[in-house]
């Protein structure tokens, strides 16, 4: 007696959602049993998290109920946390049960990479989930409230952001936009507030042309951000950081955005990894496993120059579509499609009305780039939820 194949998707991030949506579109009725496992019953837009973290936008604009994105007659949503992946048994152990699979898609998302910096995991906050964003947002406001009630309060209104990549730059930009409002609300002199952006590399925003990076730093410096480039965080303390040059910055708020690694569950499963990421084959499969696909932050793909592609949202989205097509092809014994990444451009927000962007061979800065950022966000909402989701969650002003 034959049974239909079981497809299990771990994670409802960019890659997982696009995989599920494409499977429900391409599979025929009763052609496969598809289960999507996610810790929460919502999908959140990672590239938007820096705004609610800083307090410049609502958390509700960042998350979407998964039930609004999938057809629950075709996709079974299981709200649970993955505890273990047992490759030889073809089973996934959840906190409250076990799932068997014939095809497995791993898109569990990444984890903060601390590079072994002492105290960072214990004392720094990270922008990685709705809950972590809520904590940062409330923490920032609380520091201003405490500032008025303590004798040695300066560290309360000092803010250190580690990392000057996309997340770090976009977060300090939004934080700099929020500070004047907080100062007015709590009767604090804005000149007393310090925002430090610390980066071990010699330059911010890798991947952007030097002139765009210079523009971005000039914009943020005018907003009150102090950059410390080419200087690493040596240690993170309960009340600040010690830098590699010996300088100590006293701060009650340290936010780490300096790196992402793959998920430790993948290492524990027995895959060969590089910082928790698996080098997948041309069809997005794990080496040695024709039925296991790894996408998003958990996958490692090299470009023509032999350098790994950064695990971006557009990379995960394209992987999700290709992954679903290849699973359908495998079920139907058809030819699979090799994954090819098509870079549709890169945009970084610098706060309200400001940004930098590269689309093809064209470079944009200022208001035009900020509008491109909005278009990117609206496009994603349209892809996963159509016009109704664009109208409900989109930012037009």
Automatic annotation (TrEMBL):
<keyword id="KW-0560">Oxidoreductase</keyword>
<protein>
    <submittedName>
        <fullName>NADH dehydrogenase</fullName>
    </submittedName>
</protein>
<dbReference type="InterPro" id="IPR036188">
    <property type="entry name" value="FAD/NAD-bd_sf"/>
</dbReference>
<dbReference type="GO" id="GO:0019646">
    <property type="term" value="P:aerobic electron transport chain"/>
</dbReference>
<dbReference type="GO" id="GO:0003955">
    <property type="term" value="F:NAD(P)H dehydrogenase (quinone) activity"/>
</dbReference>
<dbReference type="Pfam" id="PF07992">
    <property type="entry name" value="Pyr_redox_2"/>
</dbReference>
<comment type="similarity">
    <text>Belongs to the NADH dehydrogenase family.</text>
</comment>
<keyword id="KW-0274">FAD</keyword>
<dbReference type="InterPro" id="IPR023753">
    <property type="entry name" value="FAD/NAD-binding_dom"/>
</dbReference>
<dbReference type="InterPro" id="IPR051169">
    <property type="entry name" value="NADH-Q_oxidoreductase"/>
</dbReference>
<keyword id="KW-0285">Flavoprotein</keyword>
<feature type="domain" description="FAD/NAD(P)-binding">
    <location>
        <begin position="6"/>
        <end position="320"/>
    </location>
</feature>
């Amino acid at each position: 007696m034959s049974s239909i194949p079981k497809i299990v998707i771990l994670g409802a991030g960019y890659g997982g959602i696009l995989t599920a949506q494409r499977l429900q579109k391409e599979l025929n009725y009763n052609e496969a049993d598809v289960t999507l496992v996610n810790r929460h019953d919502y999908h959140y837009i990672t590239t938007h998290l820096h705004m609610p973290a800083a307090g410049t936008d609502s958390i509700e604009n960042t998350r979407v109920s998964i039930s609004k994105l999938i057809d629950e007659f075709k996709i079974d949503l299981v709200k649970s946390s993955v505890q273990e992946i047992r490759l030889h048994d073809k089973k996934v152990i959840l906190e409250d049960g076990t799932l068997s699979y014939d095809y497995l898609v791993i898109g569990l998302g990444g984890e903060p990479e601390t590079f072994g910096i002492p105290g960072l995991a214990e004392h720094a906050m990270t922008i990685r989930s709705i809950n972590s964003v809520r904590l940062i947002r409330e923490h920032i406001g609380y520091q201003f409230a405490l500032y008025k009630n303590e004798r040695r309060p300066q560290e309360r209104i000092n803010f250190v952001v580690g990392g000057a990549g996309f997340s770090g730059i976009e977060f300090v930009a939004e934080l700099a936009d929020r500070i004047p409002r907080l100062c007015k609300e709590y009767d604090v002199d804005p000149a007393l507030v310090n925002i430090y952006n610390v980066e071990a590399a010699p330059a911010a925003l890798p991947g952007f042309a030097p002139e765009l990076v210079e523009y971005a730093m000039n914009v943020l410096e005018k907003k009150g951000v102090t950059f410390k480039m080419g200087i690493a965080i040596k240690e993170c303390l309960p009340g600040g950081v010690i830098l590699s040059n010996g300088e100590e910055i006293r701060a009650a708020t340290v936010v780490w955005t300096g790196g992402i690694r793959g998920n430790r569950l993948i290492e524990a499963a027995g895959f060969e990894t590089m910082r928790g990421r698996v080098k997948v084959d041309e069809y997005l499969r794990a080496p040695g496993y024709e039925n296991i696909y790894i996408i998003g932050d958990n996958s490692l793909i090299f470009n023509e120059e032999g350098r790994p592609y950064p695990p971006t949202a557009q990379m995960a989205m394209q992987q999700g579509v290709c992954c679903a097509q290849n699973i359908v092809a495998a079920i139907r014994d058809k030819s699979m499609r090799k994954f090819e990444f098509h870079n549709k451009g890169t945009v970084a927000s610098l706060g309200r009305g400001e940004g930098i962007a590269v689309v093809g061979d064209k470079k944009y800065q200022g208001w035009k780039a900020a509008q491109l950022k909005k278009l990117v966000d609206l496009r994603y909402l349209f892809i996963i939820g159509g016009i109704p989701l664009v109208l409900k969650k989109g930012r037009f002003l």
